[in-house]
Amino acid sequence: MRVLVVEDHTELADSITRVFRREGLAVDTAYDGRTALDLAIDVDYDVVVLDRDLPDVHGDEVCAELTAGGARTKVLMLTASASIADRVEGLGLGADDYLPKPFAWAELLARTRALGRRAHPVREPVLARGSLLLDPARRTASHAGTQLPLTAKEFGVLAYLLGAEGRTVPADELLAKVWDEVTDPGTTTVKATVNRLRTKLVDRSAIQTVPGEGYRI
Protein backbone atom coordinates (compact mmCIF):
# COMPACT_ATOMS: atom_id res chain seq x y z
CA MET A 1 0.00 0.00 0.00
CA ARG A 2 1.36 3.42 -1.02
CA VAL A 3 0.68 6.26 1.43
CA LEU A 4 1.37 9.98 1.32
CA VAL A 5 1.79 11.81 4.64
CA VAL A 6 1.14 15.57 4.41
CA GLU A 7 2.00 17.47 7.59
CA ASP A 8 3.78 20.82 8.01
CA HIS A 9 5.14 19.96 11.46
CA THR A 10 8.23 18.10 10.28
CA GLU A 11 8.83 16.20 13.51
CA LEU A 12 5.30 14.77 13.52
CA ALA A 13 5.43 14.04 9.78
CA ASP A 14 8.72 12.19 10.13
CA SER A 15 7.42 10.24 13.13
CA ILE A 16 4.32 9.10 11.21
CA THR A 17 6.52 8.11 8.27
CA ARG A 18 8.85 6.05 10.49
CA VAL A 19 5.95 4.24 12.18
CA PHE A 20 4.27 3.43 8.85
CA ARG A 21 7.49 2.18 7.25
CA ARG A 22 8.20 0.03 10.29
CA GLU A 23 4.78 -1.56 9.73
CA GLY A 24 5.58 -2.35 6.11
CA LEU A 25 3.81 0.52 4.32
CA ALA A 26 5.39 2.42 1.42
CA VAL A 27 5.35 6.06 2.50
CA ASP A 28 6.18 9.40 0.90
CA THR A 29 6.22 12.65 2.89
CA ALA A 30 5.25 16.21 2.01
CA TYR A 31 5.55 19.17 4.36
CA ASP A 32 3.21 21.47 2.45
CA GLY A 33 0.13 21.27 0.27
CA ARG A 34 1.77 22.28 -3.00
CA THR A 35 4.36 19.50 -2.76
CA ALA A 36 1.59 17.03 -1.91
CA LEU A 37 -0.38 17.94 -5.04
CA ASP A 38 2.76 17.73 -7.19
CA LEU A 39 3.51 14.23 -5.85
CA ALA A 40 -0.08 13.10 -6.41
CA ILE A 41 0.22 13.94 -10.11
CA ASP A 42 2.86 11.24 -10.57
CA VAL A 43 1.83 8.65 -7.95
CA ASP A 44 -1.51 6.89 -7.59
CA TYR A 45 -1.65 6.89 -3.78
CA ASP A 46 -3.95 4.48 -1.97
CA VAL A 47 -4.25 6.73 1.09
CA VAL A 48 -3.27 10.31 1.88
CA VAL A 49 -2.91 11.21 5.56
CA LEU A 50 -3.57 14.94 5.37
CA ASP A 51 -3.16 17.68 7.98
CA ARG A 52 -6.05 20.09 7.49
CA ASP A 53 -4.34 23.20 8.81
CA LEU A 54 -1.59 23.56 6.21
CA PRO A 55 -0.11 26.98 5.34
CA ASP A 56 -0.12 28.36 1.77
CA VAL A 57 -2.24 25.67 0.08
CA HIS A 58 -4.76 24.78 2.81
CA GLY A 59 -5.57 21.16 3.54
CA ASP A 60 -9.16 21.74 2.45
CA GLU A 61 -7.98 22.69 -1.04
CA VAL A 62 -5.60 19.74 -1.18
CA CYS A 63 -8.42 17.39 -0.17
CA ALA A 64 -10.77 18.82 -2.80
CA GLU A 65 -8.20 18.35 -5.57
CA LEU A 66 -7.21 14.85 -4.46
CA THR A 67 -10.80 13.63 -4.45
CA ALA A 68 -12.01 15.47 -7.57
CA GLY A 69 -13.55 13.40 -10.33
CA GLY A 70 -14.14 10.32 -8.21
CA ALA A 71 -10.46 9.54 -7.68
CA ARG A 72 -9.67 6.21 -6.01
CA THR A 73 -7.33 7.81 -3.43
CA LYS A 74 -8.74 7.82 0.12
CA VAL A 75 -8.08 10.77 2.44
CA LEU A 76 -7.63 10.59 6.20
CA MET A 77 -7.75 14.15 7.51
CA LEU A 78 -5.90 15.18 10.66
CA THR A 79 -6.62 18.33 12.67
CA ALA A 80 -5.98 19.85 16.08
CA SER A 81 -9.71 20.59 16.37
CA ALA A 82 -11.93 17.85 17.77
CA SER A 83 -15.28 19.62 17.40
CA ILE A 84 -18.12 17.78 15.70
CA ALA A 85 -18.70 20.75 13.37
CA ASP A 86 -15.12 20.57 12.11
CA ARG A 87 -15.37 16.82 11.57
CA VAL A 88 -18.58 17.20 9.59
CA GLU A 89 -17.05 19.98 7.51
CA GLY A 90 -13.93 17.93 6.81
CA LEU A 91 -15.94 14.92 5.67
CA GLY A 92 -18.05 17.23 3.53
CA LEU A 93 -14.93 18.32 1.67
CA GLY A 94 -14.42 14.77 0.44
CA ALA A 95 -12.30 13.26 3.22
CA ASP A 96 -13.03 9.59 3.88
CA ASP A 97 -12.11 9.67 7.56
CA TYR A 98 -11.22 12.22 10.20
CA LEU A 99 -8.86 11.90 13.18
CA PRO A 100 -8.26 14.67 15.75
CA LYS A 101 -4.85 15.34 17.26
CA PRO A 102 -3.41 14.06 19.48
CA PHE A 103 -4.04 10.51 18.30
CA ALA A 104 -2.91 7.02 19.22
CA TRP A 105 -0.43 5.46 16.78
CA ALA A 106 -2.37 2.20 16.73
CA GLU A 107 -5.59 3.99 15.74
CA LEU A 108 -3.89 6.03 13.01
CA LEU A 109 -2.35 2.86 11.55
CA ALA A 110 -5.61 0.92 11.78
CA ARG A 111 -7.64 3.68 10.10
CA THR A 112 -5.04 4.06 7.35
CA ARG A 113 -5.04 0.34 6.61
CA ALA A 114 -8.84 0.27 6.62
CA LEU A 115 -8.94 3.07 4.04
CA GLY A 116 -6.31 1.24 1.99
CA ARG A 117 -8.58 -1.78 1.79
CA ARG A 118 -11.44 0.44 0.63
CA ALA A 119 -9.24 1.92 -2.11
CA HIS A 120 -9.20 -1.41 -3.93
CA PRO A 121 -11.95 -3.62 -5.36
CA VAL A 122 -13.38 -6.05 -2.82
CA ARG A 123 -11.28 -9.18 -2.55
CA GLU A 124 -11.49 -12.34 -0.53
CA PRO A 125 -10.16 -11.86 3.04
CA VAL A 126 -7.48 -14.47 2.28
CA LEU A 127 -5.65 -14.18 -1.05
CA ALA A 128 -5.06 -17.56 -2.66
CA ARG A 129 -3.70 -19.01 -5.86
CA GLY A 130 -3.03 -22.72 -5.94
CA SER A 131 -1.34 -23.69 -2.68
CA LEU A 132 -0.16 -20.13 -1.99
CA LEU A 133 -2.22 -18.45 0.75
CA LEU A 134 -1.84 -14.97 2.22
CA ASP A 135 -3.90 -13.46 5.01
CA PRO A 136 -3.50 -9.64 4.95
CA ALA A 137 -5.26 -9.15 8.30
CA ARG A 138 -3.07 -11.63 10.21
CA ARG A 139 0.04 -10.79 8.14
CA THR A 140 0.69 -14.48 7.50
CA ALA A 141 1.51 -16.44 4.33
CA SER A 142 1.94 -20.12 3.54
CA HIS A 143 2.82 -22.31 0.57
CA ALA A 144 1.74 -25.94 0.36
CA GLY A 145 1.01 -25.85 4.09
CA THR A 146 4.41 -24.39 5.04
CA GLN A 147 4.47 -21.02 6.82
CA LEU A 148 6.62 -18.43 5.05
CA PRO A 149 8.93 -16.20 7.16
CA LEU A 150 8.65 -13.06 5.01
CA THR A 151 10.05 -9.58 5.45
CA ALA A 152 7.67 -6.63 5.08
CA LYS A 153 8.70 -6.02 1.45
CA GLU A 154 8.52 -9.73 0.54
CA PHE A 155 5.04 -9.86 2.06
CA GLY A 156 4.04 -6.75 0.11
CA VAL A 157 5.30 -8.16 -3.20
CA LEU A 158 3.54 -11.50 -2.63
CA ALA A 159 0.28 -9.76 -1.66
CA TYR A 160 0.38 -7.56 -4.75
CA LEU A 161 1.13 -10.46 -7.10
CA LEU A 162 -1.64 -12.58 -5.58
CA GLY A 163 -4.05 -9.65 -5.81
CA ALA A 164 -3.25 -9.37 -9.53
CA GLU A 165 -4.99 -12.76 -10.00
CA GLY A 166 -2.62 -14.12 -12.64
CA ARG A 167 -1.95 -10.81 -14.42
CA THR A 168 1.66 -10.07 -15.26
CA VAL A 169 2.79 -7.18 -13.04
CA PRO A 170 5.60 -4.95 -14.38
CA ALA A 171 8.56 -4.34 -12.08
CA ASP A 172 7.93 -0.58 -12.07
CA GLU A 173 4.35 -1.17 -10.87
CA LEU A 174 5.64 -3.27 -7.97
CA LEU A 175 8.18 -0.56 -7.20
CA ALA A 176 5.45 2.09 -7.15
CA LYS A 177 3.09 0.13 -4.89
CA VAL A 178 5.40 -1.67 -2.46
CA TRP A 179 8.26 0.83 -2.12
CA ASP A 180 8.37 4.64 -1.79
CA GLU A 181 10.21 7.75 -2.94
CA VAL A 182 13.44 6.93 -1.09
CA THR A 183 14.00 3.95 -3.43
CA ASP A 184 16.05 4.61 -6.55
CA PRO A 185 13.92 3.49 -9.53
CA GLY A 186 17.12 2.49 -11.34
CA THR A 187 18.06 -0.16 -8.78
CA THR A 188 17.49 -3.91 -8.96
CA THR A 189 15.49 -3.80 -5.71
CA VAL A 190 12.40 -5.50 -7.15
CA LYS A 191 14.37 -8.28 -8.82
CA ALA A 192 16.40 -8.93 -5.67
CA THR A 193 13.28 -9.02 -3.47
CA VAL A 194 11.46 -11.39 -5.84
CA ASN A 195 14.50 -13.67 -5.89
CA ARG A 196 14.65 -13.75 -2.07
CA LEU A 197 10.92 -14.42 -1.95
CA ARG A 198 11.31 -17.35 -4.35
CA THR A 199 13.92 -18.99 -2.11
CA LYS A 200 11.32 -19.15 0.70
CA LEU A 201 8.63 -20.82 -1.42
CA VAL A 202 8.15 -24.58 -1.50
CA ASP A 203 8.25 -24.35 -5.31
CA ARG A 204 10.30 -21.45 -6.71
CA SER A 205 8.47 -21.66 -10.05
CA ALA A 206 5.25 -20.42 -8.41
CA ILE A 207 6.46 -16.90 -9.24
CA GLN A 208 7.14 -16.69 -12.95
CA THR A 209 9.29 -14.12 -14.73
CA VAL A 210 7.78 -12.97 -18.01
CA PRO A 211 10.75 -11.62 -20.02
CA GLY A 212 10.39 -7.95 -20.84
CA GLU A 213 7.05 -7.72 -19.00
CA GLY A 214 7.33 -8.53 -15.28
CA TYR A 215 6.22 -11.17 -12.80
CA ARG A 216 3.11 -13.26 -12.21
CA ILE A 217 1.77 -16.04 -10.03
TrEMBL record:
What Gene3D superfamilies is this protein classified in?
Answer: 3.40.50.2300, 6.10.250.690, Winged helix-like DNA-binding domain superfamily/Winged helix DNA-binding domain (1.10.10.10)
Report the residues modified as 4-aspartylphosphate.
D51
Keyword set for this entry? DNA-binding, Phosphoprotein
Q: Which stretches are labeled DNA-binding? A: 124-217
Cite the Response regulatory domain residue spans from the record.
2-116
Output the InterPro entries linked to this UniProt entry. CheY-like_superfamily, OmpR/PhoB-type_DNA-bd, Sig_transdc_resp-reg_receiver, WalR-like, WH-like_DNA-bd_sf
The cross-references to CDD domains, in alphabetical order and at most eight, read: trans_reg_C
Q: Which intervals of the chain form a coiled coil?
A: none
Q: Which SUPFAM superfamilies match?
A: CheY-like
Q: Does the keyword Transcription apply?
A: no
Q: Could you tell me the superkingdom of the organism this chain comes from?
A: Bacteria
Keyword Phosphoprotein belongs to the record = yes
All residue ranges annotated as the OmpR/PhoB-type domain in the record = 124-217
This protein's name? Response regulator transcription factor
